[in-house]
Amino acid sequence: MLPREAWQPIVAPSSAWAGAAPAGDTLGKRGEGACPLAPIEPRERIFFLDMKVRCTREPLLAALQSAAAVVPARSPKPVLTNLKLEAANTSAVVSATDLEVGIRIEIEGVETIAPGAVLLPSAKVAAIVRESAPGTQFEIYSDGTATVLKAARSEFRLPAEDPLEFPVVATFPPDACHELSSALVRELVRRTVFATDNESSRYALGGVLFELGDTSATAVGTDGRRLAKMEGPAAIVGGTLAATAAELQPIVPARAMQLVERCLGAGETPVHIAVRPSEILVRSGATTISARLVEGRFPRWRDVFPERPEAIRVPLVAGPFLAAVRQAAIVTSEQSKGVDFSFENGQLVLSGRSAESGESRIELPIDHAGAGVKIKLDPRFVSDFLRVLDGNTAVTVELTDAQSACVCRTDDGFCYVIMPLAAD
Fold first, then answer.
1. Kind of pairing, strands 226-233 and 414-418?
2. What residues in the chain have per-residue pLDDT under 70?
3. 3-state secondary structure the chain
């Protein structure tokens, strides 16, 4: 028997399998009563007699934890509760999918002893690595009957499943794509996902609309009662985009957007985005995320931002504004959820009331002189907007009357629209 280090992938044509017989031959004796064999197709099948890698705890744990966010807790396909570890001569990749969202993570510092692929039960393997001591060196290999995780003072043998049964997780294409900064992508996610609505059946409101241009990127999320829009600079790299790719405006599931934010690389690592007719792929550093697009129509969001030269514009600071909103909302209830925002000379007065909890009145000094405006808004919607901003961020509130939308803007491309509640 060959030593383990000498085991390599065996690629053999189907006709070389044990007992292969010419087309039309029979099992046993030829003649009456024998069972004819079907012709054997001349296609190759790949078997890995062994796969073995050596890696350190920290990069392995980071990859396992990121990939585990995609693994479904329950699935009609049990194979999806696994992670797939693929080792080539110079790299190793962990992948996971729930058939809606997929992720591929290249693990740093892996030594490949024998290339191949193996399935790892996600929860168990993550627990094994997490509970090991910092700096632990692991050997992971498959001997055809079990998957083995071995360290200096521990060894785990886990049931082995066929890696060929695991769905293929998309890789990032080599074609032209859009490039954005990781800081912008983080804000695109944080400032739009909170406004989406997974329960809507009329429009595709369960995702974020992406509009990718030659020099800019815009993300929009809405639930029909409020709308969040964030935009920033982008560039096309790697050539010229095909016409179809340039015209696509994908609606990305909110869950996929949150996964992208979680997996963003540190520092100024650029983010690359490629759009296909039915999926979007996002690459950041060693991680590639793919997601099936949300089907359906997205509202005509530009109609929400009409030109309003007559509107009053009040400058505010996010931190003090958020504190005042949260205080005023303390006495609201599900039946009386609105808070009155009265913009007066030199001050903003916020008033809340409910039969069960009483009344509140909060005064906030503001830089405003002129006509006053009073509008009733849901304090939860206002707080959602302010929470994703730094406390020192300057915000401009734009108003016309009690029946028209309240528009909030920042200087870095963030706009937020809130529809008013009916006045008492």
1. antiparallel
2. 1-49, 243-247, 266, 424
3. CCCHHHCCCEEEEHHHCCCCCCCCCECCCCCCCCCECCCCCCCEEEECCCEEEEEEHHHHHHHHHHHHCCCCCCCCCHHHHEEEEEECCCCEEEEEECCCEEEEEECCCCEEEECEEEEEEHHHHHHHHHCCCCCCEEEEEECCCEEEEECCCCEEEEECCCHHHCCCCCCCCCCCEEEECHHHHHHHHHCCHHHCCCCCCCCCCCEEEEEECCCEEEEEEECCCEEEEEEEECEEECCCCCHHHHHCCCEEEHHHHHHHHHCCCCCCCCEEEEECCCEEEEEECCEEEEEECCCCCCCCHHHHCCCCCCCEEEEEEHHHHHHHHHHHHHHCCCCCCCEEEEEECCEEEEEEEECCCEEEEEEEECCCCCCCEEEEECHHHHHHHHHCCCCCCEEEEEECCCCCCEEEECCCCEEEEECCCCCC
- Same domain for 121 and 196, yes or no, is no
* Per-residue model confidence (pLDDT) at position 1: 37
Of 258, 292, 326, which closes a domain?
Answer: 292
Tell me if 270 is assigned to some domain: yes
Closest Cα partner for 53 from 148, 162, 141, 157? 141
Predicted structure pTM score: 0.82
Provide the pLDDT for residue 370.
81
Average pLDDT over all residues of the chain: 86
Positive or negative, the CA dihedral 266, 130, 81, 207 is: negative
- Domain finish residue from 261, 292, 323: 292
Count of structural domains, the chain = 3
pLDDT at 103: 97
Residue 372's pLDDT is what? Answer: 87
CATH no. for residue 360?
3.10.150.10
Q: Which residue has the tokens 């400058």?
A: 315
Q: Could you tell me the residue range of the domain that residue 399 belongs to?
A: 306-418
Q: What's the pLDDT at 247? A: 63
What is the rounded CA–CA span in Å between residue 197 and residue 209?
Answer: 12
